[in-house]
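Batch job 17 of 40 flagged for manual review because the log was empty.
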Amino acid sequence: MADPRAGLLGSARRRAAGALRQITARPRIAALIARLAPRSVRTRTTLAACVSVAVVLLVASAAVLLLLRANLVRSVEAGAREQAQVVGRLAADGHLPNPIPLDHGSDFVQVTDTTGAVLASSQNLAGRPALTPTGTSEGHDTFDLQALGDEHHQRVTTLTADTPTGQVTVRVGASLHTADTAADLTTAALAALSALLVTTVGIVTWRATGRALRPVEVIRSEVAGIGDRDLDRRVPEPGSDDEIARLAHTMNAMLDRLEAAGVRQRRFIADASHELRSPLAVLRTQLEVAHTHPDPAVRATMVAGALQDTDRLQSLATDLLLLARLDATGHDGPQEDIDLADLVRTTAEGRHAQPHAVTLDLTDGLTTTGNPMWLGRLLTNLLDNAQRHARTTIAVRLGFDAEAGQAVIDVTNDGPAIDPAGREKVFERFTRLDDARSRDDGGTGLGLSIARDIATIHGGTLTIDDIGAGCTFRTRLPARRGPATGDGGTRPGTASD
């Protein structure tokens, strides 16, 4: 006797194997679908247009065929009902002929009494027994009409009438051959027309999409051919004012930015190399002289000079690192609510002794959001620049432009004014105007550039304005009024630098 557990185990194994085959088949099917899926936009667009039109035509054709057939069947039923009513009136009057003549469109007529006996019929049903229902179709009774000797698609109308000898049943069968023929012809015509329309839509969509995407392909090939050494090339811009033209314009604007960034990078590298090479050469010379010179006083002088150049190199490296960090992080730095008056006052008063005093005129209660360390560096750079070029005094004023919602920080020194033609140039990296070319003042040529980058990152601006005598650097930052501190107004003060 077979062990039933073995049968159960075998069945479980077969089910597990079938499930495993289904699981392993799914990735293969997905991969096959992915390989067969069209990859080009032109092909996908054409297929989508053809499928959409085909679906619409299919629904419309089905609706037309249903309405047509319904109207034709209704007409056939009306004719059969009319003949049934005529036969019923003849039976009621006692003038029922046998055989019963057929009207146009009718296949047969049969009249039976309550016992099912045939009283009269058309010629083609002469001698045949009474028709009995065999089922229903489309809500109507169906009959076995093989007695007619042919396959017939008919609609049978049944009507009862009262006669002098009792109630009779009249059945009239009307042929649906005309309706079927019309439906078949209409179906064939709609199928041919739909195929023609779908083909036409496919051809038109294919050509129109190809023509529309041709500028995109030109742009793609042109961009693909642009290397890092020929960023001056531009993609052609179509004359039309459409999405393709805007794409080409955007691509050219991006290439403009890339070219400008490349130029800035190359110039920055060249300037940084030059700025680093000069102090390194001087430092090497001083160390070589100090190493070989027998006089201790000369060696001490050389070492002091080397320390100064080392400090300058350290400042330059710090500025370069800060610029790289600003370029890399942008707005990603820490965001804090900053009291601007307190920041300006702390920055000015926390500096080491300087040759020129700094006068403060601050409006309390102004708050901005940003990185306090970077904003402090902005102020420090502006104050360092002012100290290098001031004759006697430096003034720092903090105000509020209520209409623009901005805090305005003016750092003014009474030194020589900057010519309007050079006011933008001073913010370029490693730029020194002719009256500030000396490296003995300790500047690296990066302070104002760093200050402007910090202002831009915080949503503000840094410009040079004509405000009285001397030179004024104006910083604008988004700010809001907060609770006032102290007396809540404008309070002058002096920071002894």
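Reviewer: the log was empty due to a logging misconfiguration, but the result itself is present. The radius of gyration is 49 Å. Unflagging and moving on to job 18.
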